[in-house]
Structure formats: structure tokens, C-alpha cells
Amino acid sequence: MTYVETDLTATISDLAGADLHDLTQAQIDGIDQFHSGGAEAVDRLIPGLGLKPGMTVLDVGSGLGGPARQIARSAGCDVVGVDITRAYVEAATSLTSVAGLTDRVQFVETDIATLERTNFDAAYTMHVQMNVADKPAFFTEIGRRLRPGAHLAVFEVCRAGRRDPALPLPWSIDGSDNFLATPADLRSNIESGGFTAVEWVDETAWILQWFDELGARLADADTAATLPALLTDGYARMLNFAAALADGILTVHRGAFRLVGR
């Protein structure tokens, strides 16, 4: 099991040496975006969602909630995040309260297959499906929660070929929950859930640049409360991820899809 962290809210405060309410937005941005590309990756994802103010968006695998809050602020939408890890849901809820967004953003500890609501206007995943063995079933379940014609946007890690990345990784410590697909297979898995592709973009070159600049950004944030510091063996996991991208073992793809049928 990779996601074993507990009481993340207290850990963030301890590392920062301050209450959550005293953290700057730059400091929070270094914590709550549990994916490569940070807040800018969310900015790249948003156009593929076809959002309008008043819509409700489903965040599948919501983590610490950074993307959900960012979308609520920038697009004027409500967001419901679902995640199976209790500590992440609790931390996301605390950070949302600090941001004053509890009326727009909420988080639920559940698996997508047991989520009852079925009328979302859009959905997205960011660095989630690498932990999912049955990807066709996963994306089918997402489609079942959406209105007809709704948009799905993804920002996901893929394997480039047969080689395996070194462990540990941000999404897998021992490899037992690591289910990487090639970009072609992932796109096919998404389409099998009733979606048609609108856009499919290789973002690897940009992500490599983002990793190159990550150290300077963390230094500018001026806090010990960083995402790698929150995670078990976090620095090794991030370094292995960056190395696998640089060596051509992994890629990062951004996609936009529309629900056309099941």
C-alpha cells in the first residue's frame, strides 16, 4: 500500500512551523498539487473540461485537493473530489476550509464505483490511473457519473515501452500497485468507457522542464512544508519519477474526451 500517510494536516503545520491559516498561497501550492506540473498543469487541463460557471465537476482521485480548489476559484464551478485515502480527504477538507471554499468544494472518502451521484457536468483525473489495474472498468464508472455529452480531462503518466522505472515512485513504493499503460493503450481504455477523444497531447518535454525548475520554486516558497517532505520516502520517489521521464521510460499525456455513449 503506497498511500499510508496519516494526520497530514498536523504534519503540514509542523513542517511549516505555522498554522495552516498562516501559509501563503505559494507555500500551499507546493503542498497540495500531488502531480507533476503543479498548478500550471491544472491550467492546461481546464480548457478540456468545457466549463461554465455553475457547473459541478467530479475530481476522481482528488488527493490533497489543490486542483479542485483551483478549478472552483478560476472557473466558478462546484467541485466534488473522491479519494479512497482517508488522510488525504481529511487534509483536503482542512485546506479547503482555510481557503474559504467549503461552499464550493467538498471531498468524499469513497471509490468511484460506489459513488451514487450520476449528474456531473465534467470530470478529470490527474496522476491516478497508474494505480488502477482494470482501466476500462475505471473509466466506464467515471462515465456513469456524468451527464451525456460531458467532458473528461486527464493528465496521466504512461510507460513508453517495456522498461520499468526504478522504485519507489510517487504512486507506488514497492510496485505492487503500479499498473502503467502505454499512451495508446490508455487512450483506448478511456474510449472504451464511452468517450471519444477531442485532444491527446504528449506533455513530457514540458514536465521535464518543470522538474528542472522545481528546486528553485521550492526554495522560493521558503518553507519546509513541501510535497516530498509529506510523503514516505518522498524525495526518492520524486527523483525516480524525474529520472524515468528523462530516460524515456515514462511519458506524461494530457487528454480531453467527450462522453458519447456507453
From TrEMBL:
Listed GO MF terms: methyltransferase activity
Protein name: Class I SAM-dependent methyltransferase
Residue ranges annotated for the Methyltransferase domain, each copy included: 52-158
Residue stretches in coiled coil: none
Record carries keyword Methyltransferase: yes
Single GO biological process annotation from the record: methylation
Keyword terms: Methyltransferase, Transferase
InterPro entries on file: Erg6_SMT_methyltransf (IPR050447), Methyltranfer_dom (IPR025714), SAM-dependent_MTases_sf (IPR029063)
Species per Swiss-Prot/TrEMBL record: Aeromicrobium ginsengisoli
